Amino acid sequence: MEISSKAIPDVLAFFPIFLVVYLIAYFHVFKNWNSKSRPEASSCLISLFHSTPALVMASLSLFSDKHRGFASANTPFQNMVLDYSIAYFVMDLIHYLIFYPDDVLFIGHHLATLFVFLTCRYLVVHGAFAILVLLIAAEVTSVFQNLWTLANARRSDVEFAAKVYAFLSPPFYTLYTIVRGFFGPYFVYRMGVFYLSGAADSAIPRWVWASWMVVVVVAISVSILWISNLWIELFQEGSGIIERKMSYGNQPNRSLQGDEDVVSNLVAKHPDANKGEREVAQGHNNVGENDTSPYGSIGWRLRSRRNGCLNLQYHIVCSRGKGYFTQRAEEAEHFPFCAVCPEAVVHIMLHSVGARGSPSNGSVTPRHDSSCQRCTRDGEFGKMREHKVD
Prior knowledge:
Elements: H1 8-29, H2 37-63, H3 76-99, H4 104-124, H5 128-154, H6 159-196, H7 206-248, H8 259-269, E1 274-275, E2 278-282, E3 286-287, H9 296-305, E4 309-311, H10 312-327, H11 341-355, H12 380-387
Antiparallel strand pairs: 1-2, 2-3, 2-4
Helix pairs in contact: 1-2, 1-3, 2-3, 2-5, 3-4, 4-7, 5-6, 6-7, 8-10, 10-11
């Protein structure tokens, strides 16, 4: 058994493609995304560039091989597909090592996958049939998974992304469950039966195919656990929406997922800190013993006006104010928030909450900073105050 080096130039040719795509994605396509989502989105884009070509090429390479089998020799076409996938996984591994060095699960997954591809391609030069069938199974769901991941990354601040996420989730979960939960285990069982029979020992050493089996079984097990958790979350979300519809269906002044609901859930999770309609503020940056919101600059300013205590209405306001500033973090780089901006948002949202029927607080008076681009009459908060919108 000798190491093959004939197709090494193929890897060297494919790797720059993924590198260039990643750099274009990071510095151009997703340049306006926040620092947390930007690397993940770039990784998704190179995954899209890998998944569809790999799916098509792997399928064609298998159909064109009349002697395909678990122990058959790799064809040149199959070797090229393996090289293409090796280049992708090396690029994505570099991505994780740079941006997510603590993500041991994904780094381990990529290292294990590379071990399987490299040993199949360069060490034994046999067994590509099984590896490519598993690759096809993985890439069938990859396109949907990447689109779903991109939508998930922006669903909290982009309405269209939230709709795409909600639309894709059920069919993506279903397809993923069928492929990873049923077909995958069945095919791995067939692999195991063949290899244990000893029919492949002359072409693939036992330690090689045994290591392949371990990697594949662990990968499929993790996939099943992951999709199971997603199904649980989806059912929980659906149950919550139904319960809220049943609870609030006859109450005209309550929105289905309004701030009042957010606050009710918050107080219910931290009953020890609840004193009727007031939460006891401990320190300047947390509320209650479990560090519940509101916190940060908005929470500090609110508590400073209420003698260290917060009522339910302020929780409602802060749940919106915190989301407002989170969604506009990148805008602040060009038009920074002044010291009064948090209060501006709070005052405007207090008016909106009061307009929906919640108790008003007449003791709070609006403020603005005439030197701040956001607080002036023609600025963002000025217009919000003028039109009383949130």
